[in-house]
Amino acid sequence: MIKTGYNEGKRQEMSCMSILTTWLESLAYDVEISSACLRSQSPKSNCAECLPYCPENAISFSKQGAERDSSLCTNCGHCVPVCPVQAITGRSPERKIVNETLLIEDSPFPSVKELLYFYKRGVRNVNCDSTASPDIHILKEADSLLTAMGYEPFTIVDSIPVYNEEPTFTRRSFFIKAAFEGKKIAAATITPAKWRFNQNQFEITSMFPGYAVYEVIIDQEQCNLCEACFKMCPQQVFSLKEGLLSVNSGSCNGCSLCVDICGKDAIKIVQRAYPSQPMELAVERLTCPDCNTPFHTWKNPNVSSPGPLCNICDTRSKNGYFSPYSV
Q1: pLDDT of residue 190
Q2: Going along 256-324, which residue ranges are E strands?
Q3: Parallel/antiparallel/unpaired status of strands 155-156 and 65-68
Q4: Which part of the chain is the 4Fe-4S ferredoxin-type domain (predicted)?
Q5: Cα 188–chain centre separation
Q6: pTM beyond 0.70
Q7: pLDDT recorded at residue 54
Q8: What is the pLDDT of residue 162?
Q9: Domains located in the chain, CATH noted
């Protein structure tokens, strides 16, 4: 009787463990590239941020956008943090942290954005083992942004710090941990799910409130206010108000889609950290004397009636095309 009860309890325990195993493994889902990818949003996009961080060369580009080769992809997740628009979903890369020190092993060195992500979570030092070396260029970029915002830069340390506190688990979590010891997924059982599947946590615009990390510069001599970048910007950096164009660089994530689609080369994106404050530029709303369509142009007190043409009519006129509006 006692034996039977013991066996039944053991069977239920193993059944629960099996369910837990299935649940945990379901969390480690495949890396996927969503339709939010800039390459899918516009064929003019030149974004290739994910390519250098795919050690298996599993990502390629086509007319439809970015594509992932499932036969090559190992779901390492190193592409997840670098996407400027968080279009890559899946488990973020596994990193080891000991006493405020990020341990870099045989894996791609973190991007600037991933370094800033860990800095906001208390990491202050970087240690590379014998199979890896620090990317000084990336570290300098991250340090430059941090110091501009009044933070201390990262420190490169040669030795791994001693972990003084033993991790504590409840009795239940201890046995769960022990049951999965030796499996890769065991390392994630105590880690909150939002730390494992957190592509939105890598959104750089939300890491340092009150600061912009990119500056959007518009060349008013070249820009004809066609509004293409206004409509395509995934961060809604540009907004037209009454008599003003507001450029909120604090919302810019550096995706550079506006730069790629601008036919006048009138936009630049510069990486630098500074207190965020929208820039306001004077514009005015006119009516095209040719097609009678309202449009925006830069405010110019010297413009006289009948005023400039809209972009479409101006292009047609300069190319010598016949006006359908002429009598």
Answers
A1: 45
A2: 267-275, 279-287, 294-298
A3: unpaired
A4: 64-93, 214-243, 245-272
A5: 23
A6: yes
A7: 94
A8: 67
A9: 91-165 (no CATH), 209-318 (3.30.70.20)
